[in-house]
Amino acid sequence: MNDSASEGAPIQRAPVYQTQRRVEFRDTDAAGIVHFSAFFPMMEAAEHEFLRSVGIPVMPHHESEERLTWPRVAASCDFHGPARFEDILQIDLHVDRIGQSSISYRFELTCEGRRIATGKITAVCCDLKAGGKLVKTNVPDDLRQRLSGPQND
Length: 153
Fold this sequence. Notes:
The protein is an alpha+beta fold. The chain contains 2 helices and 8 strands. The chain has a domain at 17-54 and 75-120: Thiol Ester Dehydrase, Chain A. The chain has helices spanning 39-53, 141-148; strands at 17-22, 68-69, 72-79, 88-98, 102-111, 114-124, 126-128, 134-136. A hairpin with a 2-residue loop joins strand 5 and strand 6 (114-124). InterPro entries: 4-hydroxybenzoyl-CoA_TE, HB-CoA_thioesterase_AS, HotDog_dom_sf, YbgC/YbaW.
C-alpha cells in the first residue's frame, strides 16, 4: 500500500488561494497564444498574493526585525492547452507540502473550465542577513499554520 503522505500528497484538496489574471498582449507569442514562459510570473504573482493574504510579507521591510524571505529553489510548468490575449485565467494555488524549511505549491491555471497549465514552485524559508546573504531557516510555527490554510476533512 502506498503512503500518500510520504509521496508529497497535497495537504488539502481544495485550493488555499484563488485569483484571476487577464492575459496581456506581452504574454503571447507569434501564434497569439500564451507563451509557456509567461506562466512562471503568473504563478509567482499568485504566490505573492497568497502570502500577503495570510499576513506574510514577500520581502521584509528594511526596518523590520523579522527578516524572513522565500527564494525559489525549483519551478516547473506543464502546458495543457492554449489561452489567448484578453482571456481571463483562473489560478488556483494549492499548498502541497510544508517541510522543515520549505514550502511546495501546486498551481492549476484554467480558462472557462479548460485546463491551460499546471505548475509547481518550491520556496525555502530564509533569514535575510546583512549584505543580502540568505541563510536557510525553519518555517516558524505561526507561519506554518497560516501557510496551511483551512484544514478540510
